[in-house]
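Supplementary Note 3. Input sequence used for the single-chain structure prediction.
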Amino acid sequence: EISEEALKLQGTKQWDQAGKDANLLFPAVAEVFTEAIGFQMSEKQTPFLYQLMRRTLTDAGMSTYAAKNEYQRTRPFVINGKPTGTPEEEEGLRNDGSYPSGHTAIGWAWALILTEIVPEKTDAILKRGYEFGQNRIICNVHWQSDVDAGRTMGSATVARLHADADFAADLARAKIEARAMKTN
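The predicted structure, written as discrete structure tokens, is reproduced below.
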């Protein structure tokens, strides 16, 4: 499932972006959707949105672990012997199942939430969320079916979060913050 085309991207701008997208640490990860949403998220300027994204990272990422632990699918780089976009993470990834992709679940959940917060930017946000997942293939750490399943897990997580009153309150506050950022 790893295409030769994806492997040929090593050393390109897209390869570099894929490596950057692997970093899920705040505050750096808050920049992933900056261009798509049209403003910078930060703990200081958009505290509710920032916190919503942090909580969603945990919820969406953890949603994949029952399947990861059940299937323990071997990652592409272990099989094909090609470099990854995240060499510093290879040792840990060797023993962490690749199916479904937690990074993709997180990125897609963020994209879905951000389309609710900044609906006029839906196309750009969904494009960036899609690329965030596809970059896991470019990094040679996930198969296409891992990424596809990750999007399903991200969608399911967001659907479940909509039944949570705290999430709804945070989402409403984040929408207010986003409106304020767009008028500045």
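The first helix runs from residue 4 to 7. The chain has a mean pLDDT of 92.
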